[in-house]
């Protein structure tokens, strides 16, 4: 079972770690010997590589550990929601009884339960669905996650907090270097944070993935590139505040106006469709 790990409160507002890139300056005498030049170039490459990974780690820690009071409040509520689901027995929309950590096996039902708990706690939570078509170097895809819209005051704009229940696994790679895996281990399993913070983390991890694959002389799949990862959480999406499985499935299946074609098999169904309740869906850009 996947462990839904949150950051401890003691980790919040962790100070920046300083890079040690300038602690050991190179003192190599100039020589005309070709082998000496190769050693110098190799040493420079090693130092540059070490500086890169140290810098990525520092940037990642800054964006993971430093959070606002709003983010902390929603994060704690999300943690309580998951713990409550673990303790209770719920009925999956798939028609089977699930209990405890097995509730996480059905991603859609799990997200719906977490969103319902957040709504009961007073948060404007919704299930979000992003969907994009293929373009140059970007394959088509879609992704579903949660968010919370927090209203502060009339003078200030609303704050949008993204909730991804399987965040760390989105960046895991097979045959990755130890430096890259070290960054992945710093990521929380459940991400709760502002859009700006998520954008920074995506940039750090995609740069690290590109460097890792280049070092291993491996091809970088388009689904790991920066543009694709951004599309998952930061593209236009449909927000669905309903936690009812039937209305959620119907609203997600909405397409441009299409005429219902009647047949001997659908004559009764067409009458029911006309009276079917459709949940309003908000589009976020």
UniProtKB/TrEMBL annotation:
Highest taxon, organism lineage: Eukaryota
Amino acid composition bias (Low complexity), ranges on this chain: 12-23
Residue segments, region Disordered: 1-43
Transmembrane segments: none
A Pfam family per the record: PDDEXK_6
Ranges of compositional bias, category Acidic residues: 1-11, 24-34
Alphabetized InterPro entries for the sequence: PDDEXK-like
Annotated protein name in UniProt: Uncharacterized protein
Lineage, uppermost ranks: Eukaryota, Viridiplantae, Streptophyta, Embryophyta, Tracheophyta
């Amino acid at each position: 079972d996947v462990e839904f790990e949150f950051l401890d409160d003691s980790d919040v507002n962790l100070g920046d770690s300083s890079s040690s890139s300038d602690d050991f300056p190179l003192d190599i005498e100039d020589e005309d010997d070709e082998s000496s030049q190769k050693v110098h170039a190799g040493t420079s490459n090693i130092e540059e590589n070490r500086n890169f990974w140290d810098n990525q780690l520092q940037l990642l820690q800054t964006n993971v550990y430093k959070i606002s009071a709003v983010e902390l409040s929603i994060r704690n509520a999300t943690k309580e929601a998951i713990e409550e689901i673990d303790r209770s027995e719920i009925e999956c929309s798939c028609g089977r009884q699930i209990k405890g950590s097995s509730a996480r096996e059905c991603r859609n039902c799990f997200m719906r339960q977490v969103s319902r708990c957040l709504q009961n706690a007073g948060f404007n939570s919704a299930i979000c669905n992003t969907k994009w078509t293929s373009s140059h170097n970007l394959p088509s895809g879609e992704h579903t996650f949660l968010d919370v819209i927090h209203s502060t005051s009339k003078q200030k704009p609303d704050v949008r907090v993204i909730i991804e229940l399987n965040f760390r696994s989105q960046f895991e790679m097979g045959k990755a270097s130890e430096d890259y895996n070290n960054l992945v281990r710093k990521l929380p399993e459940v991400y709760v944070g502002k859009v700006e913070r998520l954008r920074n983390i995506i940039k750090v991890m995609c740069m690290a993935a590109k460097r890792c694959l280049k070092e291993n002389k491996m091809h970088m799949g388009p689904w790991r590139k920066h543009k694709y990862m951004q599309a998952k959480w930061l593209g236009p999406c449909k927000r669905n505040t309903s936690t009812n499985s039937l209305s959620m499935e119907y609203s997600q299946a909405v397409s441009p106006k299409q005429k219902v074609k009647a047949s001997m098999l659908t004559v009764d169904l067409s009458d029911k469709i006309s009276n079917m309740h459709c949940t309003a869906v908000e589009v976020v850009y």
